[in-house]
Amino acid sequence: MNTSCAIEMRGITKRFGQVVANDSIDLSIKRGEILSLLGENGSGKTTLMNMLAGIYQPDEGEILQDGLPIAIRSPKDAYDHGIGMIHQHYKLVDVFTAAQNIVLGLNDQKLDLKSINAKVKAICDKYSFVIDPAMKIYDMSVSQKQTVEIVKVLYRGADILILDEPTAVLTPQETDKLFAVLHNMKADGKAVIIITHKLNEVMEISDEVAVLRKGKYIGTVKTSETDPQALTDMMVGHAVVLNIDRPKFEKPVPRLKVQGLTCIDHEGITKLDGVSFTANGGEILGVAGIAGSGQKELLESISGLYPVKEGSVSFIGGDGKAKELVGMTPMQIRKTGVGMAFVPEDRLGMGLVGSMGMTGNMMLRSWRKGKGIFLNKKSPEDLAKKIWDELEVVTPSTSFPVRRMSGGNVQKVLVGREIASQPKILMTAYPVRGLDINTSYTIYNLLTEQKMNGVAVLFVGEDLDVLLELCDRILVLCGGKVSGIVDARSATKEEIGFMMTTLGGKENA
Ligand SMILES: Nc1ncnc2c1ncn2[C@@H]1O[C@H](COP(=O)(O)OP(=O)(O)OP(=O)(O)O)[C@@H](O)[C@H]1O
Ligand SMILES: [Mg+2]
To answer: What is the CATH number of the domain that holds 397?
Structure first.
């Protein structure tokens, strides 16, 4: 027995009906180490970890702790064994304070607030967290909510921590802070397992990387002895080319003209301030900015979902004539035949209906848009099958509820559907968030294909390397204003990073 081994999973199999989510997996988790769990979308990472967290029970196999078999039948059992999991979707009660959430379901609920706060403060001090125990969850940012989840797990005495895609919703700065905390935990002798699709994060944070492929365990490698290319090949099972082709479209033409766009939210805060730019057909225009700089409002106001205070958004047709879109609802915009497609950040809220399958969601788009959207008169079922096939969507059937599909697969369905509507303008917000590396490249190639078909593509992204490799030009937002528009072929990361925080970037420096 390896004494540093905190948990050992042996021959773990988990099935959902016909789907074998985990197929006889062996995995060891060591104390004082950070292990990355890597695998393509739908490869079984969340399922495997849910069995350690007591959400699911294995159909076959055993789990050993410090060499002895244990049974984890509920989240409480998991806590009793010192295992805590921070899930992809947080499980906090919005109307409660941080402290109330932290002690929810514990005997400590009977404790006075002062002792609870003291206990919370001790945890925060130890790992350098900052939270206000009296703050209500609904007043918190995503990163604050995540901190509460982590403190909640530590409060329950967890020394084996599982984090399922914790950085997907964080800014780069917040990610750095989280990683500092994880390093502290590791130094404290805890075992940490992190799921992330970002290979640079895997390389930065972990000691070892365990790889799953289509429900099977492929192996564990030392991070110091591997690299992103080797990890990708392991994940996919064959060599993968990780580069983005950036062809130039012969003659880009102005397609969308935005002038002086100003938006104010319900609390009177200015979200967009005099934004002006032109997006060309045959070009990918990137939108960069630190989180909350107006990216969401920009795409939503162009598509008629967010009220515009001032300014204009005009669509320039093939005949060169401009059509004003401000004041129209998304439905009205569609009726004008402008051809605008939108992949929003919130896939299952604004994008798809979770309880419906792929086919149902295809129909939804055609109903909304009116007749004639499907090229070659393809039926929604045919289209669903085509997307299933071409984007390699992992789902048992085209009627399987999208809510129960893995995160990355949901995104493929949404992007596939929007592209199939043959738009003239395609707007995407963080379209590869939560997607595995291979699928991310599939999406980049799809966007480039659209560009080469003459579509004006707007790509809101967070990874500057990708923005610089994929886009033709990049519009940088800073506090709701346009900080500048740069040529992506010649700009640098530093230049853009500076423009994101300082209006006008180097000109004002
Ligand atoms: N409750 C469920 N019912 C039916 N099938 C499920 C359920 N949970 C997971 N699956 C299936 O099990 C497989 C593995 O899913 P899982 O969520 O573990 O993948 P993942 O590796 O976490 O993917 P991602 O990176 O996209 O989050 C998928 O095919 C998924 O559709
Ligand atoms: Mg998952």
So the answer is: 3.40.50.300
